[in-house]
Amino acid sequence: MIDEAKNIRPGEEVDRDRLHEFLSKAPEDFGEILEILQFPGGFSNLTYLIKTDKQEYVLRRPPRGANIKSAHDMGREFNVLSLLYQHYKKVPKPLLYQAEDDIIGAPFYIMERVKGIILRNRPPNNNSLTPQLMQLISEASVANLVKLHQLDIYETGLVNLGKPEGYVERQVTGWIKRYINAETDNIKAAKNIMHWLPENIPDTREVSLIHNDYKYDNLVLNPEKPEEIMAVLDWEMATVGDPLMDLGTTLAYWAEANDDDLLKPFNLTWIPGNLTRDSVVETYFQQRNMAATNVLFYYVFGCFKVAVIVQQIYARYKKGFTDDPRFKHLIHVVKALLTNGEKAIQLNRISHLY
């Protein structure tokens, strides 16, 4: 269950000699590069393991053919980590950022590696994820999201990461535009949701730091005590805004046992012991000492947003920017997410949609 790096996928290689030469001139003593491997998870930014004679590091860069600057801005992600690390230690320590693309063909940044358990897209063969453990992990996941949302964005300076005013409206408008720009198939559920969302935007009750991609495979767990979260990864979409938008995205990823099987690789929340989406909501709002309101909107938005992210990746595949076979059938994942959002509207609930 320890997250292991593997051989680099064809077409995504890193020039070891050029990278070593560059790092040898950096203020940080990275040491001599012994090996470069690639972490297999994820469909967005590319993540590599850099082994040196000093220690292990992680390098992140945008995918080939990406043109979505806000989602693949390495400088912004590095700045988020640099600011956040001063106030929230459950993130890898950022070390170096390179804005130019003349070293490895794209901007990149390097951070320390936090080695631990990452729950990827399938349960381990040894049946170690017991219902009791999964309940503890799911509860810890929600509790940690609450802590993130309770960080003082003004005292820490995190407020400078975005523009909280009008955040929800901008997100709805922006993600609808992104879907239209990346659209490849005529999907009725997408049309229905794009009509429903602007008409049901709730008032914002508060603003906070939001991760925007908070799910199990972005959490590093303690190998000795898996219910303990050691680090939160992938801050590429972090900003400040309505924290319930963050919760909605997490709920969209939070697959249940009766959801479409296509959605289960997102998150191992469907195996026995995990909280249901309804239980996540109940736990979150109890710990925030807040009344749960407008949850349907935030969940439907989350389903739509994640569908757009997958649609953008699928569109890159359709345009020939990548031949990664994992991307070939992503349109069916898009449809499954949109179906969940549409069913939630029809049934006026976010759990037990089937």
TrEMBL record:
Q: Which residues form the Aminoglycoside phosphotransferase domain?
A: 36-268
InterPro entries per the record? ACAD10-like, ACAD10_11_N, Aminoglycoside_PTrfase, Kinase-like_dom_sf
Keyword Transmembrane helix attached: yes
Keywords for this protein: Membrane, Transmembrane, Transmembrane helix
Residue ranges spanning the membrane: these are: 296-317
* Record Gene3D superfamilies: 3.90.1200.10, Phosphorylase Kinase, domain 1
Determine if Membrane is one of this entry's keywords.
yes
PANTHER family, A to Z? HAD FAMILY PHOSPHATASE, HYDROLASE, PUTATIVE (AFU_ORTHOLOGUE AFUA_1G12880)-RELATED
Protein name as annotated: Phosphotransferase family protein
Source species taxonomy = Bacteria, Pseudomonadati, Bacteroidota, Cytophagia, Cytophagales
